[in-house]
Design goal:
Elements (H helix, E strand, L loop, with lengths): L2 H8 L3 E4 L11 H13 L4 E5 L1 H10 L4 E4 L13 H9 L4 E5 L11 H10 L3 E5 L3 H9 L4 E3 L17 H10 L4 E4 L5 H9 L4 E4 L1 H4 L1 H13 L2
Parallel strand pairs: 1-2, 1-8, 2-3, 3-4, 4-5, 5-6, 6-7, 7-8
Function: Converts N-acetylmannosamine-6-phosphate (ManNAc-6-P) to N-acetylglucosamine-6-phosphate (GlcNAc-6-P).
Pathway: Amino-sugar metabolism; N-acetylneuraminate degradation; D-fructose 6-phosphate from N-acetylneuraminate: step 3/5
GO molecular function: N-acylglucosamine-6-phosphate 2-epimerase activity
Length: about 230
């Protein structure tokens, strides 16, 4: 699938992130596959999934594009941090590899541009997860096929918000020629629609759809307020 073909498929559509953090009861391959199948049944247009084993299982189970990544660690650059991680995700069958494209150093000393080159050579596309406008511009210049706002609010120096960084969506959409994907703290259909209105090509929603542990804790916290 070419970048243009996938862009056409995803224009104005929902990508569902089917992931679970370490230690969560949902973090089991068969369970995450069922989440992906539920997303398909609900009308999702693509799946975002973590770890080669899970990516491979979801690719086998659903007839939708899969955006794969490999989280290794929980600090610094840990979303598909090296070329090795990226190629493992391609081998698992992902149509797109999502990778950290912030300006922080990668653990093996490689560059984001090198990762893009390797993934393209292996026949897949790249989604750059960024936290700022400058990073998004740089990622597009380095060959990313899509740029996502995934890391805004999670990298030091970026705005801490309870909702999505819609200002970043707006600025990126005006500044780069590649599709911008809104991701991060999108909690309602109204926020998802606003992201599209601000220029997003498509929208990724995870926690608000696929994370019962986190959703339960929100309700518990709300009931505990005086």
């Amino acid at each position: 699938m070419t970048a243009q073909d996938l862009a056409d498929t995803l224009r104005g559509r929902l990508i569902v992130s089917c992931q679970a953090p370490p230690g969560d009861p949902m973090r089991e391959t068969a369970t995450l596959v069922r989440l992906a199948l539920s997303a398909v049944a609900g009308g999702g247009s693509a799946i975002r999934a973590n770890e080669p084993e899970v990516v491979a299982a979801i690719v086998k189970a659903v007839d939708l594009p899969v955006i794969g990544l490999w989280k290794d660690g929980d600090t610094g650059v840990y979303i598909t941090p090296t070329v090795r991680h990226a190629l493992a995700v391609v081998e698992a069958g992902a149509a797109v590899v999502a990778a950290d494209a912030t300006d922080r150093p990668r653990p093996d000393g490689s560059t984001f541009a090198e990762l893009v080159t390797a993934v393209h050579a292996a026949g897949a596309l790249v989604m750059a997860d960024v936290s700022t406008l400058a990073e998004g511009i740089a990622a597009a210049q380095q060959g990313a096929d899509f740029v996502s706002t995934t890391l805004s609010g999670y990298v030091p120096g970026t705005p801490k918000q309870t909702g999505p960084d819609l200002d970043l969506v707006t600025s990126l959409s005006a500044a780069i020629p590649v599709p911008v994907v809104a991701e991060g703290r999108i909690n309602t259909p109204e926020e998802a629609a606003e992201a599209l209105a601000r220029g997003a090509h498509s929208v990724v929603v995870g926690t608000a759809i696929t994370a019962p542990t986190a959703l339960t804790s929100r309700f518990v916290a709300g009931l505990a307020r005086p």
